[in-house]
Amino acid sequence: MSTTVIDRVNERADETVLPPADTTLIEEIESFLDNYGRQASLIAPDGKKTDIPPEVYDVLTRVVLALANGSAVTVAPVSMRLTTSQAAEILGVSRPTLVRLLEDGAIPYEKPRRHRIVRLDDLLAFKRNQDTQRQAKLAELTRQAVADGLYEATAEMYAEALREARRGRPA
């Protein structure tokens, strides 16, 4: 029985691909994607042609750009299950910090045996929520700074205020 594309993807869902030693072909693909935009197609050896959907094109572009820049790439289904170390790496936090987030209920997880398992889609939802909250806080801080007239201050005014603060006097 022959394997399908889906079988091959499921077998290699967590495989990381390193950039090739010879990047000539990757650079050629990168140039092709730049020149033809989101209107690319695949052509099989028998001449059958199919258009690449924009979502697939975007993923392909990201993969090619990463490989062209010398980065390794892993493409994984969103339902993928991660170890706490993998999840911490994606969030850019330490594993103990991630475990605290899990124990506090910030991110759902499973513990079928001894180890915690985090679903990638749950982790990405948490990350999106954190990013949204961070952007809202930054917008509020910026709004408040504008209202307080802080954007009208010059660099010299900040330097003088810092000198005065170091001397223990109000600016």
Tell me what the structure shows.
Strand 1 and strand 2 form a beta hairpin. The strands form 2 sheets. Strands 1-2 form a two-stranded antiparallel ribbon. The chain has helices at 5-11, 24-36, 54-68, 84-91, 95-103, 120-147, 155-167, and strands spanning 41-43, 49-51, 81-82, 118-119. It is mainly alpha-helical and 171 residues long. Helix 2 runs antiparallel to helix 3. The chain contains 7 helices and 4 strands, in the order H-H-E-E-H-E-H-H-E-H-H.
Features:
171 residues, mainly alpha, two-stranded antiparallel sheet, 4 strands, 54% helix, 6% strand
Q: What order do the helices and strands come in, and which of them pair?
A:
Blueprint: H1 5-11, H2 24-36, E1 41-43, E2 49-51, H3 54-68, E3 81-82, H4 84-91, H5 95-103, E4 118-119, H6 120-147, H7 155-167
Antiparallel strand pairs: 1-2, 3-4
Helix pairs in contact: 2-3, 4-5
Summarize the structure.
The protein is mainly alpha-helical. It contains 7 helices and 4 strands.
Which whole number gives the mean pLDDT? Answer: 83
Strand content: 5-15%
Order of helices and strands: HHEEHEHHEHH
Number of helices: 7
Point out poorly predicted stretches. Answer: none
